[in-house]
Amino acid sequence: MRLFDLRLIIAFLFGLYGVVLVVIGLAFTSDDDLKKAEGVNINLWAGIAMAVLAAVFAAWATLRPQFAETDKQPLKEL
Asked: How far is CA 63 from CA 8, 23, 27, 53, 67, in A?
């Protein structure tokens, strides 16, 4: 597994933003905010969805790593 795999970077960012939204949804959502969103705690649900997406990206990067094929011969000059 490569450290700078783009899927891991995306997973980290989605996970970070997802955790922030979950914390905001649980601790800092007022009744006025819920009334504006018709009773749905959108920060909480969006944060959970982003955390799940981060887990999917991390699992994808872990289970299907990308490696360069090194057994091919280099191109010959024309």
From this structure: 12, 29, 35, 15, 12
- Per-residue confidence (pLDDT) for residue 78, from 0 to 100: 66
For 1-38, write each residue's pLDDT tens digit: 576 889 999 999 999 999 999 999 999 999 999 999 99
* Residue carrying the six token digits 């990206």: 57
The whole-angstrom separation of Cα 23 and Cα 29 is 9
Taking the CA atoms of residue 30, residue 48, residue 19 and residue 38 in that order, the dihedral angle to the nearest 10 degrees is -20
Residue 36, classed as helix, strand or coil, is helix
Beta-carbon count within 10 A of 7 CB: 19
